[in-house]
Amino acid sequence: MAVRLDGQVVLVTGAGRGLGRAYALDLAKHGAKVVVNDFGGSVSGEGHDDTPAQQVVNEIKAAGGEAIADGGDVGSYEDCYKMIKLAVDTWGRLDAVVANAGILRDVTIHNMSEQDWDAVIRVHLKQCYNLAHHAWPIFRQQSYGRFVMATSTSGLIGNFGQANYGAAKAGMYGLMNVLKLEGEKYNINVNLIAPAAQTRMTANLMGRDPNDPERAVVMAPEHVAPAVTYLCSPQCEESGICIAASGGRYSRIAIVANKGVTYDPHEFKDADWFAANWSKITDLSDAYVPWSFRETREEHYAAKKAAQG
Ligand SMILES: NC(=O)c1ccc[n+]([C@@H]2O[C@H](COP(=O)([O-])OP(=O)(O)OC[C@H]3O[C@@H](n4cnc5c(N)ncnc54)[C@H](O)[C@@H]3O)[C@@H](O)[C@H]2O)c1
């Protein structure tokens, strides 16, 4: 099963640099026409420059692909409408969206200003609402869509000094859980990518040498791009999956639930009973991945397969 996006149109935000650039180039290599969005600001989100997006468009065109640049701000409801309209006005369709643009304002919670909180939530989490809200009518109408959001282990697992970023990134998991249900009957798949790569965002973190040539190879964004291309493709038939990707490793991160401890609800238990049962209540040895309140993921996909005959 070759992964191909011939004739399809994909919007990649924050595609002027780093991971987004690698996604845009790989999607174009697999046949997609790409809207290359990038506001062109600093890592913390200041300033504006149309050059990075245009440079990636030039690279795609030089390789024989089709692309168009957009300099909009993903935190803006109106700009997201315009970038989706640009795809439809230019090529008559939109098949996939990669919500990748991002900024950092790292600071511990007691020092975090309201501006630092709001700016990060806006660019990461509100971006996803903006793009999903504007793409959905097109996806529904064509009974097809792929929506990929760039999350992070900083939120799914936790990372010191990134309360705003971690909350926004983990919020994408919640958004995915709801949109996978809302999109299913329209063949709209919603998935997450949790990347790790050497980009300007991570080059100076944790005392790393930004010019380390070995790291530039083993942590290149190009290691993450194949996963995103697959998640954007018609070949990916699953929804509600979070893929972690970095040089040398692809894996999956999921929220699981256990069966827990049951008791007769006509009785009322006290905190001492709860404390005595803590280890059984929190034991994950029977954990499963839920699809909804009613089904496990496995039950859901088995029922779907059976219904399709
Ligand atoms: N690099 C990593 O290891 C890593 C790890 C986890 C998650 N991520 C996520 O992956 C995504 C890409 O990160 P990167 O490492 O390539 O960073 P990067 O700084 O190299 O690229 C991000 C791009 O987003 C653009 N951008 C920022 N705000 C924007 C806005 N409001 N509108 C449009 N474009 C905007 C920037 O101009 C920049 O070109 C981000 O969402 C980031 O949080 C990266």
TrEMBL record:
The keyword Oxidoreductase applies. Pfam families: adh_short. This is Ketoreductase domain-containing protein. One of its GO terms (molecular function) is oxidoreductase activity. The keyword Oxidoreductase applies. It comes from Tepidiforma thermophila (strain KCTC 52669 / CGMCC 1.13589 / G233). SMART domains: PKS_KR. Residues 8-199 form the Ketoreductase domain. Belongs to the short-chain dehydrogenases/reductases (SDR) family.
